[in-house]
Amino acid sequence: MELKAQDEESIMIIQLRRLFSSSSKGDSDTMKELKIRLKHHLPKDVQESGKEFQDVFDALVLGKKISLGDYRFLTEALLDIHTEAVMIIEKYQTKIKEILGNIDFKSKNIKKDTDKVSEVRCNCDEIEPDINIDVSDIVEKHTLQLQEKFSKIGSHNLKAAQVVKPKTN
To answer: Are the C-beta atoms of 125 and 133 separated by less than 8 Å?
Structure first.
């Protein structure tokens, strides 16, 4: 899913690049204004004429001023320069946050499920050694449930949910 978020970011950059395109005469006025506004946050080579919006964007990422789904710094810089660019950024920022939010939600559910299995394992460890109880059915049931949930969200990494069967006497 993060790749989907990165794809959305790329589409956003393409749309913004069209707004800040350069010509044979050099940077557009809006690009010049953006570079002036960000001059303390951009390397000297990116401030030169002929550098594209992509270069500015990449420099802000490298400088940790913006990140995937968080473009507030860039939005603030563009507020007085280009309102259409601000609208594009806000639209894609919302989309990307939704995509990344879904990833976070799914990973939280996986953690809850692995905690349940761990709880079963811990409860089995607390059983007194002289009592002979076969918990393999319980462990197998929870393992199958976890495998179903993992397959539904497309995760093939079951290492986090592997269950160690307790030793029985």
So the answer is: no
